[in-house]
Amino acid sequence: MTLHPTSPDELALILRDAVREDKKVSVAGTGNWSPTEGDLAISTDRMASITELADRDLTMSVEAGATMDTLHRRLAAVGLWLPCDSPGGDRSVGSIIATGTSGPLADSFGPIRDQLLGLTFVTGNGRVITAGGKVMKNVAGFDMTRLVCGSFGTLGIITDAHFRLRPKPQADCTLTARPHHDTAWDIWRTVTQSRTSSACLLNPGSGKDKAQVTVRFTGSVNAVQSRRVELEEANNLDWREEESGGYWGDHSRAVLANPISLTTGSSVSTANAVTTAIDDLLPRGSAWVQRNLVRWAGAASVKELQIFRRTMSESGTPVTVERAPWGILKEVGVFGHLSPETRAVTERLHDSFDPNKILTAGGVFVTD
Fold first, then answer.
1. CATH number of the domain to which 24 belongs
2. The model scores a pTM over 0.85
């Protein structure tokens, strides 16, 4: 059964009833990212308003069911910008915050948690909690906003979020090239380490396929033009200019064409080794390399995912399964194995926010 609350208080009543009736709850958001399982699913599609846009203060308050595309359109109309390009198409704000997913722009502007000023969420036992603020991030003590961001709904269900904004860039230029494998890696390393681009994305390809490098510049007209000329002069390649909005929108939606997506931690020095492991162990999909992570989307069995995660853990590289069918997710988990020390801390947090363990319906913390 899917329920559609219209306010935090209504959601709190639903969760308190679920505790009394011993029902498991999962979050559906707007229904296009994570699968749901359990006795109840909570949709936020009736909490989808932009409640406040303070253009002078460069802040915005929205309900969790509002989609990121809606936010981008509203902001563009008034010359403002939220540098968030999380994968998955037209996802809800709550889904992006709960899963902590970040796109290529995070390389320059930080992940979604860095764009947040505050949020409101409802815990598993029906408490409405507001963390942070609307105007200026000034956290004294524990930062609960960062705790909830990326918790995959295990601590509560997000209902409202408050963002810091930026002026819309005067220029936004996206260039793509398809060099051979080694050249592509050299370009990606050079651009990434120079930190002159807003985003630099590498699809290394596989086998004899050519790689693709995508570089995005944002800023003033003169600065973007200067960086573009510098890039083109440094590489004897046929750079193609793309329409930024359409290109990055297509890239975001491409993840949804695959049943599974995951991310691994990486760096400029380790990314090549990570993609090599992906080629060897997860051959039915594609990888995209950012500065601090590699995202893979494709198809894989439970065994393939477990072997890949185990291989990555040998080098201390974390693997997060962002999205998968429940039959797979409950076997491999979002985070997989936790050390006894980490599990003890995690369980204490869950006991504080969801003492009856009604949220998420399983599939987050599973030992593989």
1. 3.30.465.10
2. yes
